[in-house]
Amino acid sequence: MNRGQPETVEGVVAVQDVLKGTGSAHEGVVLTTDNGEKLRLQRIGGHPFNDAITRQMVGSRVRLEGYRLGQVFRFIHGGQDQKSQER
Protein backbone atom coordinates (compact mmCIF):
# COMPACT_ATOMS: atom_id res chain seq x y z
CA MET A 1 0.00 0.00 0.00
CA ASN A 2 1.35 3.43 -0.94
CA ARG A 3 0.71 5.75 1.98
CA GLY A 4 2.37 8.82 0.51
CA GLN A 5 4.56 11.09 2.58
CA PRO A 6 4.18 11.21 6.35
CA GLU A 7 3.12 14.50 7.90
CA THR A 8 3.46 16.05 11.34
CA VAL A 9 0.51 17.30 13.39
CA GLU A 10 0.43 19.07 16.76
CA GLY A 11 -2.30 19.64 19.31
CA VAL A 12 -3.96 18.55 22.54
CA VAL A 13 -5.20 14.99 23.09
CA ALA A 14 -8.55 14.13 24.74
CA VAL A 15 -11.05 11.27 24.96
CA GLN A 16 -14.34 11.82 23.08
CA ASP A 17 -17.26 9.79 21.78
CA VAL A 18 -16.52 8.89 18.17
CA LEU A 19 -18.40 7.15 15.35
CA LYS A 20 -21.74 7.82 17.07
CA GLY A 21 -24.69 6.00 15.53
CA THR A 22 -22.56 3.20 14.09
CA GLY A 23 -21.71 -0.30 15.22
CA SER A 24 -18.19 0.99 15.88
CA ALA A 25 -19.20 3.77 18.33
CA HIS A 26 -16.74 4.06 21.21
CA GLU A 27 -14.75 6.51 23.32
CA GLY A 28 -11.77 7.34 21.16
CA VAL A 29 -8.59 9.33 21.56
CA VAL A 30 -8.83 12.55 19.55
CA LEU A 31 -6.24 15.18 18.72
CA THR A 32 -7.51 18.76 18.43
CA THR A 33 -5.02 20.69 16.33
CA ASP A 34 -4.14 24.32 16.88
CA ASN A 35 -6.54 25.31 14.07
CA GLY A 36 -9.44 23.35 15.65
CA GLU A 37 -9.37 20.27 13.42
CA LYS A 38 -10.24 17.01 15.22
CA LEU A 39 -8.46 13.80 14.22
CA ARG A 40 -9.03 10.35 15.71
CA LEU A 41 -5.66 8.91 16.71
CA GLN A 42 -4.56 5.38 15.94
CA ARG A 43 -1.05 4.15 16.61
CA ILE A 44 0.30 2.04 13.78
CA GLY A 45 0.66 -1.44 15.29
CA GLY A 46 -1.70 -0.64 18.17
CA HIS A 47 -5.33 -1.57 18.79
CA PRO A 48 -7.48 0.83 16.73
CA PHE A 49 -10.09 1.38 19.48
CA ASN A 50 -8.24 0.88 22.78
CA ASP A 51 -4.47 1.29 22.70
CA ALA A 52 -2.80 1.89 26.09
CA ILE A 53 0.10 3.86 24.59
CA THR A 54 -2.26 6.20 22.74
CA ARG A 55 -4.40 6.68 25.86
CA GLN A 56 -1.32 7.73 27.87
CA MET A 57 -1.23 10.89 25.74
CA VAL A 58 -4.66 12.09 26.95
CA GLY A 59 -4.35 15.54 28.50
CA SER A 60 -1.04 16.23 26.80
CA ARG A 61 0.08 18.50 24.02
CA VAL A 62 1.78 16.31 21.40
CA ARG A 63 3.60 16.40 18.09
CA LEU A 64 3.02 13.25 16.02
CA GLU A 65 4.32 11.98 12.71
CA GLY A 66 2.12 9.72 10.61
CA TYR A 67 -0.46 9.42 7.86
CA ARG A 68 -3.85 11.08 7.51
CA LEU A 69 -6.71 8.84 6.34
CA GLY A 70 -9.79 11.06 6.28
CA GLN A 71 -10.52 12.02 9.90
CA VAL A 72 -8.09 9.41 11.27
CA PHE A 73 -4.42 10.12 11.91
CA ARG A 74 -2.35 6.91 12.05
CA PHE A 75 0.85 7.86 13.78
CA ILE A 76 4.27 6.27 13.63
CA HIS A 77 5.85 8.04 16.55
CA GLY A 78 5.73 11.26 18.43
CA GLY A 79 6.06 12.75 21.81
CA GLN A 80 4.31 14.56 24.57
CA ASP A 81 5.37 18.15 24.99
CA GLN A 82 3.62 18.78 28.30
CA LYS A 83 0.49 18.08 30.26
CA SER A 84 -2.22 20.50 29.19
CA GLN A 85 -3.41 23.06 31.70
CA GLU A 86 -6.98 22.50 30.40
CA ARG A 87 -7.67 19.40 32.51
Could you name the key traits of this structure?
mainly beta, 55% strand, 5% helix, 87 residues, five-stranded mixed barrel, 5 strands
What does this structure look like?
By secondary structure, this protein is mainly β. 5% of the residues lie in helices and 55% in strands. The chain is built from 1 helix and 5 strands; from the N terminus they run E-E-E-H-E-E. The protein has one helix spanning 52-55, and strands spanning 7-18, 26-33, 38-43, 60-69, 72-83. A 5-stranded mixed beta barrel has the order 1-2-3-5-4. The longest helix has 4 residues, at 52-55. The protein is globular and about 30 Å long. It starts with 6 loop residues before the first strand and ends with a strand. 22% of the residues are buried. The model has no long low-confidence stretch (mean pLDDT 83).
Outline:
Helix content is 5%, strand content 55%. It is built from one helix and five strands. The chain has one helix at residues 52-55; strands at 7-18, 26-33, 38-43, 60-69, 72-83.
What order do the helices and strands come in, and which of them pair?
Elements: E1 7-18, E2 26-33, E3 38-43, H1 52-55, E4 60-69, E5 72-83
Number of strands: 5
What is the terminal-to-terminal distance? 39 Å
What gross morphology would you assign? globular
- Structural class designation: mainly beta
Neighbour order of strands in the largest sheet: 1-2-3-5-4
Low-confidence stretches: none
Number of H- or I-type helical stretches:
1
Strand % is over 45%
Largest sheet: 5 strands, mixed, barrel
Helix content: under 10%
Assembly annotation: single chain
Overall pLDDT, averaged?
Answer: 83
The radius of gyration computed from the alpha-carbon positions, rounded to a whole number of angstroms, is 12 Å
Which series of helices and strands comes N to C? Answer: EEEHEE
